[in-house]
Amino acid sequence: MHAIEKILAKNSGRAAVRTGEIVTAKIDFAEINDLYLQTVYSFYEMGGEKVWDNTRCAFVFDHYAPCPDIKSASNHREMREFARKNGLKFHFDTNCGVCHQVMPEAGVICPGMIVVATDSHTTTHGAFGAMGTGCGATDMATILMTGELWFRVPEIIEVRLEGEAPKGVYPKDVVLAVLGRIRADGAVYKAIDFTGSYVENLNVAGRMTICNMAVEMGAKTAYMQPNQDVLDYVSRRAVRPFEVQETDPDFAYAERHVFDVSKLEPQLACPSSVENVHPLTEVTAAGEVKLDQGYIGSCTGGRTEDIAIAAHILRGKRIPDYTRLIIVPASREVMLECMEKGYIQELMEAGATITTPGCGACLGAHEGILAPGETCITSTNRNFPGRMGSTEALMYLASPATVAASLLNGRITDPRPYL
């Protein structure tokens, strides 16, 4: 069996599972973000009284943090009341950050777990050797009542990433290249196992970025075998014992895709689809792309490593007048570390705007949304029309390095000369 199958088998009390089977599995941790007050309503409508385990579920207020309108403030109030009534051990309010960042920081994400959240980018937790996936309000209400959910055992695709990334090529560039080949519907309800020498040597932040965007290929979940960086990270924080699952050597993948990372250059997902991926030099050769805004943040590109490279590129420089660079740390912990290292101060001196840790403009709610006719380069995960504001705005997805270099010049720019 694959490690994902072993996790599903363990949590459903079975010796083995196979592709296509339906299983009912115990959930190790459940998270509800502030888009999903309906979860509370569904819980009560189905007869729920108390959550099944108040140490294994949490609310995270990240999409509307702090609240930009009365409706979101009212939703937060109702969700706080539910959390208080159930005595939830973990509650992440507007001072914490993005769910996929704060949960690992809090030690609730470990190898071998099943993690379900009301957010499609829960695939991020495959970076830790966990099975992470998203669900809707009704399924989440069922989890809160029973601690279980049904799953169809997915087909598993291997994406083998070999080689060493050249200067200027970051995990975001790598996963965009993968997206460009597999496409937005190439892994629907399948699992993606990222393997290879590049993955084996990748740090926690890079692993999270790649697993995060597996869902942009339609994947149900993502997986990476934990390396020493992951095990050290988890061991320092874990709130309960954990067990690493190993894939059997004779496991047969449904598909295999191999990439030589050493041959990549910086990549862009051009408007208005995540699969519209091109090498950066190809885009710039076709003509100058002027920018109104750059954005570094979200569960994809808002970690310390992302902000650090932007600070390095912009140190001692200024972004052009009439442009703006929005920096959104993924969590309070990230913001404090970046302040301690001086990155926040350097970016502010370069003209950047620093906002509250959270999702910010990634979902088009507040803190940097776009006007009609504007063009933005962003380290976030989606660029369909209206994602960050107006349906008449254009978005290019890129690495934080490419975002920073581009805003420095007011046009899409290759970051490699600045490194």
Written overview of the protein:
- The protein has 419 residues and is α/β, with parallel strands linked by helices.
- The protein has two domains: 257 residues, Aconitase, domain 3 (2-Layer Sandwich); 142 residues, Aconitase, domain 3 (2-Layer Sandwich), CATH 3.30.499.10.
- Helix content is 32%, strand content 18%.
- The chain has 15 helices and 18 strands.
- The strands form five sheets. Strands 4-3-2-5-6 form a five-stranded parallel sheet.
- Helix 6 links the parallel strand 8 and strand 9.
- Helix 6 packs parallel to helix 8.
- The longest helix is centred in the N-terminal third of the chain and has 17 residues.
- The protein is globular and about 60 Å long.
- The N and C termini lie far apart (43 Å).
- The model has no long low-confidence stretch (mean pLDDT 98).
